[in-house]
Amino acid sequence: DADVTQTPRNRITKTGKRIMLECSQTKGHDRMYWYRQDPGLGLRLIYYSFDVKDINKGEISDGYSVSRQAQAKFSLSLESAIPNQTALYFCATSNPNQPQHFGDGTRLSIL
Amino acid sequence: EDQVTQSPEALRLQEGESSSLNCSYTVSGLRGLFWYRQDPGKGPEFLFTLYSAGEEKEKERLKATLTKKESFLHITAPKPEDSATYLCAVQASNDYKLSFGAGTTVTVRA
Known about the structure:
The structure holds two protein chains of two kinds.
Chain A: E1 4-7, E2 10-13, E3 19-25, E4 31-38, E5 42-51, E6 54-57, E7 64-70, E8 73-78, E9 87-94, E10 101-102, E11 106-110
Parallel strand pairs in A: 2-11
Antiparallel strand pairs in A: 1-3, 3-8, 4-5, 4-9, 5-6, 7-8, 9-10, 9-11
Chain B: E1 3-7, E2 10-14, E3 19-26, E4 30-38, E5 45-50, E6 56-59, E7 62-66, E8 70-75, E9 84-92, E10 98-100, E11 104-109
Parallel strand pairs in B: 2-11
Antiparallel strand pairs in B: 1-3, 3-8, 4-5, 4-9, 6-7, 7-8, 9-10, 9-11
């Protein structure tokens, strides 16, 4: 089983819909992150959480929200999806001063 | 603002043809420089962390080196299974987050 699991793996939806992407981990890491990846731009941080009660905005948080339901679960929501949020979304986990480990991503298309 | 630039964008190699990928960075004090490998349809997979200029790390056919302004990922005698996108990221000493480059896509032909 994967250490960092993202669901769904693929999603196609329409403009204006609310979308939730989920991430769960079995690594026991405290820190969890959400990134988006666009061609030619690299990975950009959306939100991160250092523990269940700690949520922080990343560099591109507008239009997104998150929830840390438990140490092992971190979900990303798009309240009203728009086409320029079409991207690959990755969840990552880490412990302090350790490398981040990534899930296999969600490919999200917004029509 | 931290910046990471990777070159070339794409690299096509013949099996056994060694080459190097470049990662140039600017950061206000380096805590660590990270190399990841990403296969199509997969998330980035951690390869190396380098912490200070002069440091080198090796794994199979890959060797990463670090100077004060750039890092190189050397691929020695590559095989087709080394085909992937290689990502570089830096973490500043006063920060939590990683700043990623756009990656170099390596294709190794048999």
